[in-house]
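Input chain follows. Return structure tokens only.
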Amino acid sequence: MKEIELHDLDFLVERITSGDERAFSTLYDLFSPALMRHLITKVVDYDVAEDILHDLFLSLWKNRAQLKTIENLPAYLYSSCRYLVLAHYRKTMPYLHAVDVQEVDVLDESVSIEERLHYRYLIDMVANEIENLPEKCREVFKLSRNESFTNKEIAQKMEISESTVEKHITKAIRRLRIIARSFVLLF
């Protein structure tokens, strides 16, 4: 934004914090088209994107008294979109962490095909990353997560120390977090 635009934005924020609905409507008109395009690329479904956008602006209006504390409103809006998209996926796909890879194709048909495809893609990425872990690390991780062994049980079974078990699990989780971040960036 140019300096004059930042000044205008500051003026709008000032008016919104005092309850000016017209100023809020102007802010909505300024940002909603770009935010909507952004959201559509993240959730694919137009209606869901529209709901998220409306939730964002409703929250903004309800918390308008805090608007003055936001240093970069456009960045804040996009960041809020990201969190709302993540909340949407957590709400609509709570089974992400609890479903076996083999069960993916028989998930509840009320879940949209796009969401099932996103889920399948995430599961494939995680499974691939687990298989690419070093052998001992992979074995420890699978015993911990798939077989629900305790660290002590794993240490005894593999004849290694519990601290080594913890290091392997930490290493695996770090690598999976990187995959999870890249997945989120795709959205």
